[in-house]
Amino acid sequence: MDPVKIIEIKKSVFEDNDADAGRLRKELKEKGVYLLNLMSSPGSGKTTTLIRTLNLLKDNLRIAVMEADIDSDVDAVKIKEATGIPSIQLHTGGMCHLDAEMTRQGLAGVEMDNLDLVVLENVGNLVCPAEFDTGACRNAMILSVPEGHDKPLKYPLMFSVCDVVVINKIDVLPYFDFDLDKCKEYIHMRNPKAQVIPICAKTGEGVEAFAQWILEEVKNWKQH
Amino acid sequence: MDPVKIIEIKKSVFEDNDADAGRLRKELKEKGVYLLNLMSSPGSGKTTTLIRTLNLLKDNLRIAVMEADIDSDVDAVKIKEATGIPSIQLHTGGMCHLDAEMTRQGLAGVEMDNLDLVVLENVGNLVCPAEFDTGACRNAMILSVPEGHDKPLKYPLMFSVCDVVVINKIDVLPYFDFDLDKCKEYIHMRNPKAQVIPICAKTGEGVEAFAQWILEEVKNWKQH
Question: How high is the ipTM of this complex?
Answer without folding.
Answer: 0.72
